[in-house]
Amino acid sequence: NDPSVYNIEHKSIWDSVSYPVWQNRFSGSSKEEIEAMLRDNGQEVTWIQYVNENGSVSETLHTQWKMPGFRLHPITNKITWFNQLYSMNGRYFNEHNVAEMDNVELKDRPLHTLVGNGRELTDEEYDLLHNIH
């Protein structure tokens, strides 16, 4: 999820982790330009509607990026574990004591990863990855 600068309900959460809002990341770009840029980069783009502090309906950006867990290393040509399954998982905020995230579901956090078939990592799987790192 990419938080909106106008979403007051979650502002303190995103501010606590210094997460950049999409309006700043894509300043001056139209919705169509943002979508094209992200899709050209292999990401899926969805606009999520919510009610802002004025009671009006606004949109915020949600992106998904499906990447392989393993790739060939460009120099050694060996198969290498290449992904952010661990460090981009929503549990990351728990690891770094971001109390503002305690009541935010994993799927609603600014960063969150899923296994390739779309399922959540179990706590046991996440702990295993944690111990590897």
What does this structure look like?
The chain is an alpha+beta fold and 133 residues long. The chain has helices at 8-16, 22-25, 31-40, 92-95, 123-132; strands at residues 43-51, 57-65, 70-72, 79-81. Strands 1-2 form a two-stranded antiparallel sheet. A two-stranded antiparallel sheet has the order 3-4. The longest helix has 10 residues, at 31-40. The protein is globular.
Give me the secondary-structure topology.
Elements: H1 8-16, H2 22-25, H3 31-40, E1 43-51, E2 57-65, E3 70-72, E4 79-81, H4 92-95, H5 123-132
Antiparallel strand pairs: 1-2, 3-4
How would you spell out the order of helices and strands?
Answer: HHHEEEEHH
Strand content: 15-25%
Mean pLDDT, rounded to whole units? Answer: 83
Helix percent band: 25-40%
- Low-pLDDT residue intervals, each spanning 5 or more residues: none
Shape: globular
